[in-house]
Structure formats: C-alpha cells, structure tokens
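Quick one, probably user error.
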C-alpha cells in the first residue's frame, strides 16, 4: 500500500534526523563576500538556440548571438575577455557596501555602478568575480545562451543546510538533470492554465477572509480607517493562499488570533532571507562559529518542520480515505503523493521551497500596488471602473473574469517593473563559453543580471520613476516599442518562476476585490516608503494605508459570505 510505505519512509526519515547535527563545512575559495550575489538567489532562463550560431574555431562549443545590436564581433576580430572589463576591486566593493551604505540597497548600486562602468562590468568579492549585465539587449544574450540546465549560483549556504539535515533539494536549489526532473513533475499543476484556474475558488475564500480581516484591523487598531503595516498582513494572506493551494488546508492566518505556528513560519521566512545575505559574506569554514549561523539553521529547521507536519497530515488523511474505500482525489500535494514520481523526502524538499517562495513574493508586490494606488487616485478609479464593469454588483471576480481586466494586469505589471521582487538574477555558464556584447566569457562565468537597473532605463521606459500602468496596455504606443527583456519579473525560459501563474491568480483576485470593496487612501502623515534588498526586494519600513468602504461593500460582503458557505 502506497501510504503505508510513504509513512514508513517518513518515520525512517525522522529517525535519521534526530541527534546532534554534524557540520560538514570545508574551506571554500569562493565563499568570500558575495553580497551582490546574495541577490542572485533566484535565477532565470531557457535554452534558446535560435539566433545563435555555433563556431568551433577554438575546438570548444561557443555560442555567439547572431543578431542582437550589442554584438559587434565580426569575423577575424579577436574577442575581448573578462580581463578587459572595467569594475570595482574587492576593497572598492567593500567601500560601496559598508562605507557608502549600499549593503541593503544593492538594487540601487546596480544603477550607480552602471553609470560609472557602463553596461557590462565586473565586481570582485575576494576570489569571486561577478560579471554584471545592465542592458536589456545584453541580458537577452545571456539568457538565450543558458544551456539545457540553467544554473543559478551554487547557493552554498542553502545547499549546506540541506546536507547538514539530510534534506532533499527542491526546485530552487537543485541543479542539472535532477533539477529538470523535479521541474517536469512539479510544473503541470503549477503552470497549466486549466489546473491553475481550478484554484480560483480556494483562493477567493482566502480573499474573502482577508477583506474581513482588513475591516476588523481597521476597527480594532486603526480608528476605523487605518491598517498598519499592510505588508505583514499580506504575508499572512500569502501563506494562507499557498497552503490552500498546496494542501487544501486552511491555516487560520486570517483569524483574529493568528496561530503561533503561522506567525513563526512567516518570521522564519523573513529571517532566513535576511540572514542569507549576511551568512554568504563569510567563508564557509567559519559558519559554525557565527552566532547567526545557528539562527539561519534554526529558521530552515522551522520551515521544514511546518512543511513536514503538513505533508504528514495529508498522508494520514489519504490513508484514512483509502482504508475507508473512499475516493482519493485532491489538489497539488495529493496529486504529488498519488503519482508516486517522487519520494516523500523529495516531496518535502519541494513543498518547503514552494511554501517559502510563496510568502514574501506576492505580498510585497500587492503592498507596493496598494501603496501607489493610494497615492494616485485617478489610477485607482480607472482600476475600480474596470473591475465593476466586468463584475457589477455582487459578482465576485473569478479567474475567467480577470482575463477581461487588462488594466488590473497592467497595474501588477507596472508594480513589478518598479519593484521587481527579484531585483538581480543570475546565470552561471556551465555548458559553454559564451559571447556577450563584444566579450568572450569562459565556462563557469557568473553573470549578475541587473533587472532593477534595466527596469529604470529611460530609453525603454520613458518617465521611469512614474507609476504608469497604461504603458503595459496592448495597443499603446509605448508597449509596441518595449524591449521584451526590459522587465522580466518572473524570469525567462525553463528556469523561470514555478509559481508564476498561481502568484498572478492570487494577486489579480486579491487586488480586484480589495479595490472593489475599499477605496484605499495613503497614510495621512505623508510617509514615503523606499525599497531595500533582503535577498528579495521589500519595503524598508511599514506601509500604512487607510481603507474606506465603497458603497458596494456590504453587498459584496454578503456575497462573499455566501460564497464561503
Ligand atoms: C510576485 C510573485 C513572484 C515573483 C515576482 C517571482 C519571481 C521569481 C523569479 C524571478 C524567479 C527566478 C526564475 C529563474 O531563476 O529563472 C523565481 C523562481 C521561483 N519561484 Fe517565483 N516569484 C513569485 C511568486 C512565486 C510563488 C507564489 C511561488 C510558489 C508557489 C514561487 C515559486 C518559485 C520557485 C519554486 C522558483 C524556482 C524555480 C526554479 O529554479 O526552477 N514564486 N520566482
């Protein structure tokens, strides 16, 4: 019986993980300061061979982009190499990070450095050399040459944790053919439109509860109007949302008293991301002696512990149904368990990574959307008009409805341009030497793709600092001229975001209903909030907003309540 063997495997797993945890660190030459690289925790790309011509004059495979404008190498021209690139030395990098204070605003450092060094430069972090790429053309060239198994950095701190605890890698941390196998199993029910739209009702239930929570927060602690620190509230929404999709389980995050486990899970995600960019500064050999290494490990422990409890619960539920001869159907995790393509350990590795990827990403994005909509009432009104036109009266938007809301999508698109959750992505060339611009780079070159800098390139996005959703509308003059690699917030190709479709569905349903229900107004103190980078881009301080009921509110509340029953 499948579940009996799964439970046996799970028990065995628990046994192997008890007792003292050995540290198997060893001195690594490349674990010096990698602060910029810590922003590269998330990578993108796809193997794309069109437009590339293969040359074998050096005996190796070399991919040369054939038609992009930045490529100036002609026949017989000796390519420049990494040695010819300008860029800050190791001490200069340290100076920028810790004296000039860019450690938490590395996204802004991309812009400053590209002004000084041009679109392609190298940064040194001890023995590690990173090639920074800061135009849409050059980013396209890197991504189109990434090979069959695109690789991010080796992420030694995340991988070391898994070795320590004997845990499996998930899609975020796995590499090579093993990564490809995991993605082929996880992809269909995360990315295929028919599966994703089937999560619509479940997510809408969470949205309904969030709308009620906003009302409750306003009444209890906001003098009837204000919700303080909207982002923290949205973390709860996002955790509840992803849990409902993966486990078909409600976690109680929208209750007046949020369960301790949920609060702790969300804090652990934040702490893990924050400590990631500190741990990576130090050589691996000293990690066990760092006070925050213990906290880093403890954060991961907690993430895995919660995921394990939820997986275990689902296994028991399914076993019970099988014992009672009942039909065992269900959504994401049920499908993974039933399909028997992965072991429980592998499922746990993937589920933990999906959970952690699902919390800070959508929530930060919605926070910034609301922040701008509050500041720009005309844009908010245009969105409101679109939502009530597609869903008049009590009608609750569904996945199908959002496909008739281009302005809603443009608002999210523009938010992700101004605040890309992953401000700097990366690629490590593993399969071939590649040509980028007029430079030839050897295998194992680490490219840092400066998406944040490119998102603010005024040649691609006129008035780059303005929040202008209309630039994303089909038919607009600007849209027609946009570079396809100007803003790629979910990445590109086979290593692109696994949760993209679910994230978009969550954001569309939540934002459309919040705006239908409430008029959002800014913090009357006039506070402005800037982004910082803690591996992911997030607000530097709490975003406080006022939520004013619109006329249609009570009906929608009733419809929402009925919908929930
Ligand atoms: C606004 C929301 C989100 C944004 C902007 C975003 C962005 C990204 C980006 C840029 C990457 C890197 C892609 C690459 O390396 O090529 C990524 C990877 C990933 N994302 Fe998301 N993400 C979001 C939400 C989510 C959600 C909700 C989930 C989980 C359901 C998720 C799961 C993942 C996973 C598992 C990966 C690793 C994929 C791989 O390496 O194969 N993401 N995301």
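Nope, works fine. Designed sequence:
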């Amino acid at each position: 019986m499948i579940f009996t063997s799964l439970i046996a495997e799970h028990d065995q797993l628990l046994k192997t993980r008890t007792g003292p945890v050995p540290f198997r660190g060893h001195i690594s030459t490349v674990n010096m300061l990698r602060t910029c690289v810590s922003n590269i925790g998330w990578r993108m790309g796809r193997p794309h061979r069109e437009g590339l011509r293969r040359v074998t004059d050096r005996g190796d495979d070399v991919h040369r982009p054939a038609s992009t404008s930045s490529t100036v190498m002609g026949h017989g021209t000796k390519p420049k190499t990494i040695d010819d690139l300008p860029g800050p030395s190791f001490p200069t990098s340290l100076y920028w990070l810790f004296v000039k204070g860019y450690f938490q605003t590395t996204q802004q450092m991309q812009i400053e450095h590209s002004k000084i060094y041009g679109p392609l430069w190298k940064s040194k972090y001890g023995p590690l050399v990173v090639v920074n790429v800061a135009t849409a053309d050059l980013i396209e060239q890197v991504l189109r040459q990434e090979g069959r198994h695109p690789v991010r950095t080796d992420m030694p701190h995340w991988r070391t944790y898994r070795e320590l605890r004997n845990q499996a890698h998930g899609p975020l941390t796995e590499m090579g053919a093993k990564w490809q196998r995991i993605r082929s199993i996880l992809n269909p029910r995360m990315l295929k439109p028919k599966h994703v739209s089937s999560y619509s009702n479940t997510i809408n239930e969470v949205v309904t509860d969030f709308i009620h929570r906003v009302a409750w927060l306003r009444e209890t602690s906001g003098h009837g109007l204000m919700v303080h620190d909207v982002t923290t509230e949205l973390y709860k929404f996002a955790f509840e949302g992803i849990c409902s999709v993966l486990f078909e389980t409600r976690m109680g995050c929208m209750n007046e008293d949020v369960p301790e486990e949920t609060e702790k899970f969300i804090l652990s995600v934040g702490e893990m991301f924050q400590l990631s960019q500190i741990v990576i500064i130090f050589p691996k050999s000293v990690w066990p002696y760092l006070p925050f290494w213990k906290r880093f490990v403890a954060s991961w422990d907690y993430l895995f512990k919660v995921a394990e409890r939820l997986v275990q619960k689902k296994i028991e539920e399914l076993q019970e149904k099988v014992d009672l001869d009942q039909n065992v159907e269900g959504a994401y995790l049920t499908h993974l368990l039933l399909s028997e393509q992965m072991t429980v350990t592998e499922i746990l590795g993937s589920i933990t990574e999906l959970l952690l990827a699902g919390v800070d990403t959508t929530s930060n994005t919605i926070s910034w959307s609301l922040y701008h909509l509050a500041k720009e009432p005309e844009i908010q009104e245009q969105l409101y008009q679109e939502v009530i036109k597609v869903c008049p009266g009590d009608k609750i938007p569904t996945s199908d409805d959002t496909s008739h809301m281009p302005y809603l999508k443009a608002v999210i698109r523009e938010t992700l341009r101004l605040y890309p959750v992953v401000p700097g992505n990366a690629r490590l060339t593993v399969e071939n030497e590649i040509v980028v611009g007029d430079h030839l780079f050897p295998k194992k070159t680490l490219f840092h793709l400066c998406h944040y800098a490119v998102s603010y390139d005024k040649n691609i996005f006129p008035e780059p600092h303005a929040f202008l959703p209309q630039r994303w509308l089909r038919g607009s003059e600007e849209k027609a001229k946009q570079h396809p690699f100007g803003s790629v917030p979910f990445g590109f190709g086979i290593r692109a975001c696994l949760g993209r479709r679910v994230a978009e569905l969550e954001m569309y349903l939540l934002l459309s209903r919040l705006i239908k229900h409430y008029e959002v107004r800014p913090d009357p103190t006039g506070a402005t909030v800037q982004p910082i980078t803690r591996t992911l881009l997030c607000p530097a301080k709490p975003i406080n907003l006022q939520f004013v009921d619109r006329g249609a509110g009570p009906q929608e509340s009733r419809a929402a309540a009925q919908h929930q029953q």
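The first helix runs from residue 2 to 17.
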